[in-house]
Design goal:
- By secondary structure, the protein is of the alpha/beta class.
- Helix 3 links the parallel strand 2 and strand 3.
- 48% of the residues lie in helices and 13% in strands.
- The chain has one domain: Response regulator (Rossmann fold).
- A 3-stranded parallel beta sheet has the order 1-2-3, with helices on both faces.
Length: 93
């Protein structure tokens, strides 16, 4: 899968995933990502709005789940919050 190859070779601040992917599911991709990258935060941004979809993503390790369509400001605010939280948690005490 191209996404895994790219993610394993690059450093990212955040992954944004959808539930529906051409050759997998977002949850399946997240499980695979966690095999080599346990720390980068993951935001699901999907049109799949069932509570079960959201729960599966969060149980797999996503930190947030937004349902499309979302106000662009809410998406941006969520991205900035997630990245800010990740940066705070990586600071030495």
């Amino acid at each position: 899968m191209e996404a895994l190859a790219l993610a394993s070779g690059e450093g990212f601040d955040l992954y944004i995933l959808d539930n529906r992917l051409p050759d997998s599911t977002g949850v399946g991709l997240l499980v695979s990502l966690r095999e080599f990258d346990p720390h980068t935060p993951v935001l699901f941004y999907s049109g799949d709005g069932l509570e079960d979809d959201r729960r599966k993503a969060l149980d797999a390790g996503a930190v947030a789940y937004l349902i499309k369509p979302t106000d662009p400001r809410e998406l941006a605010d969520t991205v900035f919050r997630i990245i800010g939280d990740a940066n705070k948690s990586s600071l030495p005490e």
